[in-house]
Amino acid sequence: MLKPFRGLRPARGRAADVAAPPYDVLNSAEARQRAAGKPWSFLHISKPEIDLPSDTDPYDAAVYAKGKESFARMISEGVLQQDSTPCYYLYRLVMGSHTQTGLVAAAAVDDYDSNRIRKHEFTRPDKEDDRVRQIDTLNAQTGPVFLTYRAHPAMDALMQRIAATPPELAVTADDAVEHTLWVIDQAADITLITSTFAALDNLYIADGHHRSAAASRICQQRRKDNPDHTGDEPYNTFLSVIFPDNQVQIFDYNRVISDLNGMTVDELLFRIGDNFTITPRQQAVKPRMRGSFGMYVSGRWYQIDLDANIPDDPVASLDVSLLARHVIEPLFGISDPRRDKRIDFVGGIRGMEGLQQRVDSGEMAIAFSLYPTTLADLMTVADSGEVMPPKSTWFEPKLADGLVSLRLD
Questions:
Q1: Are 71 and 51 in contact (CB under 8 A)?
Q2: 253-371 is classed CATH 3.30.870
Q3: In terms of C-beta density within 10 A (0-12 exposed, 13-18 middle, 19 or more buried), how is residue 394 classed?
Q4: How many CB atoms lie within 10 A of CB 385?
Q5: pLDDT of amino acid 174
Q6: Which of 169, 221, 269, 318 makes the best surface tag, with the fewest CB within 10 Å?
Q7: How far is CA 38 from CA 32, 176, 247, in A?
Q8: What is residue 141's predicted lDDT score, i.e. its pLDDT?
Q9: d(CA 11, CA 5)
Q10: Residues with pLDDT less than 50, the chain
Q11: C-alpha distances out from residue 82 to 8, 74, 79, 302, Å
């Protein structure tokens, strides 16, 4: 299920120059600003449009070529160096009082294809195509897939032991999240990790469905193109960071809508009252239980509590599903939140203030706050072979790009 690999990572003392936010949490303008004055920021590889004219289409062939050029330069200048032997890596994230520690490893594409590594989201073809082109052009996987597993005592003990030793690198990002990496190169430790995960029934994708789907497509194509294919080539795996489930933190993923679909606020409240108990609140409403939602409209917060029974179904019982079924679809006419431009999604890391700001600015007309989806929910949905509605989970802290990459050559 997992294999060690020869990681490509920052040379000693260069981690702070290289580490960058994931490619998909910044838009091009934000990435350009974040990378200003930082010639070795990994954003030059993951968001290479920042080094081209500002009107460049981020999916233009020149963008991928520019990323390849920056990647090659960082390797040739020794900013990134590849380990000489296959290793696993221990990766710790600290955000405030929260700590999570996991393993960086090469996960098997075959396990992804057979659903031993389980999914819970659909992918979008355009985003999947983008990752295929990026991986293929760089001949490397630079954005890790975030996996989780049911905590295992042997792994807990190993990670605790290794984390007590001096790390290979430690860097504090702009958002104050601490990223620490250890190299696991002892044969006994490598054997223990490999055998322990081989015995597990499943791993679960928490975040990174497009990256894993793209890795699978790359693998299938390269198998066809390689007459000497053995199954041991790096393209048979994908870059992953694997955390135990009892350390993973999921935030709420909230909704904002640009208009009231022709209703007045009074009409909206009247119609919501058919299925919910409505309670005006003086303060922002951050739901504390399933079936309870916050609603912010015209400068006022309301708590709305579902009166109907919650279905005994892994997907229909999710709060994102309940809000869609009882409010967003029937009252706002939004049946395809993936493509409808009237709805947007706000990660809970931005707090209730982030929702209020979107409405108070006039950009949006209404906001809904939700109780977070749990990791148990995610695993139940994945085990049932179902998929969640789009934007059901928001994981924090985010993994850094650039700390370890997996070359495919």
A1: no
A2: no
A3: buried
A4: 11
A5: 86
A6: 221
A7: 10, 18, 32
A8: 97
A9: 17
A10: none
A11: 4, 12, 10, 54
